[in-house]
Amino acid sequence: xxxxxxxxxxxxxxxxxxxxxxxxxxxxxxxxxxxxxxxxxxxxxxxxxxxxxxxxxxxxxxxxxxxxxxxxxxxxxxxxxxxxxxxxxxxxxxxxxxxxxxxxxxxxxxxxxxxxxxxxxxxxxxxxxxxxxxxxxxxxxxxxxxxxxxxxxxxxxxxxxxxxxxxxxxxxxxxxxxxxxxxxxxxxxxxxxxxxxxxxxxxxxxxxxxxxxxxxxxxxxxxxxxxxxxx
Length: 231
Hints:
The protein has about 230 residues and is α/β, with parallel strands linked by helices. The protein folds into 2 domains: about 5-80 and about 175-225, HAD superfamily/HAD-like (Rossmann fold, 3-Layer(aba) Sandwich), CATH 3.40.50; about 85-170, Hypothetical Protein, Haloacid Dehalogenase-like Hydrolase, Chain: A, domain 2, CATH 3.30.1240. About 35% of the residues lie in helices and about 25% in strands. It has helices spanning about 20-35, 45-50, 55-60, 85-100, 130-140, 145-155, 200-205, 220-225; strands at about 5, 35-40, 60-65, 70-75, 75-80, 110-115, 115-120, 160-165, 165-170, 185-190, 210-215. The strands form 2 sheets. A 7-stranded mixed sheet has the order 5-4-3-2-1-10-11. Strands 6-7-9-8 form a 4-stranded antiparallel sheet, covered by helices on one side. The radius of gyration is 17 Å and the shape is globular. The chain starts with a strand and ends with a helix.
């Protein structure tokens, strides 16, 4: 039976917003030679290349950027979804953000990507220290879920989900990460750090043949790939 391995990036193949460990990169280059592997990330292509490097990224059989809304085979773009947030949706999210009294907002809170949008309470201008502070604040306040629930109550043409450590991803309905499963053959094995209800890996994990909820970062992924007798 054909197996396809699908990998999230942040928190799964790398530490959050970090470049891949060089030794793990070497391992993956060997693993990909004998296994069919694809990337399924919420990040855009420039960010993916920054974290994974050009050689490793292009070694995967396909790379699904922006949760499957921007697809590459090697260095060739093969699909992009034109969907964007409407002015009404941007205004709605902006109003919610303004009502959240987080003390250290840094700017760039809504980022339109190809076929998706990314929303951040702390803002994408945050440095590492500011991100870390926000992560601890979010654990106590859980405001990302509040935003996602309010958005999903208001709009039915698109859907908001918690993503990564600091963000929310919004997609056209049906165009989240789960859309990549229909393009695979045989068994699908998914690795992601948000495979819980409301997380941006949840829908794809539920359609995959098997999935691994990664809680300890890339070293956990590495360990599973190294020790499993089923691969």
